[in-house]
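Could you help me review a protein record that somebody else here produced? What it holds is a sequence and that sequence's fold in token form. I have pasted the whole thing underneath without changing anything:
=====
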Amino acid sequence: MDATAEARSGEGARHGGEQEKGEQPEKKVSLLGMFRYADSLDVLLMVVGSLGAVGNGVAGSLMLVVFGDA
């Protein structure tokens, strides 16, 4: 989206531009506050995703050790 279309749509005020009258600033939340309403399925999916990310990161380094010419 170019600047002209953004100005027409009013998205500039929401994305770091000037605030319109009557519009309240966004409330900031802590890192743990984002997960306040997570249920057990959400926690399970976050744990599985985190373990998958760690496994993906370890796999590259492990392949260098196993298949390296050292």
